[in-house]
Amino acid sequence: MSKRLQILEKITASENADSFAWYGLAMEYRKERRHEDALSAFETLRARDPEYLPMFLMAGQLLIEMQRPEQARSWLSAGVELARKKGDEKALSELTSALAETDG
Description:
The protein is mostly helical. It is built from 6 helices and no strands.
């Protein structure tokens, strides 16, 4: 286990961990190919901060890697809606592109 992962696990064990810490934890798990742990961290982040836009693309890509296209579409579609609501054209473009990968 990486030192970074140990630190992020410690930070997120605290009640006042911010969204970026949860996102970092999910990404670190993904990097270590601990997909279920990464998905769990993304789900926790979504429950705590449903407006945290970056998680939708990363969770969608993770689910594509895990060969779970239905779940990926759900995350990516929610991200598309949020990106539109926030007026974030770059995120919208990335999410739309990833969503197209799930159509098969």
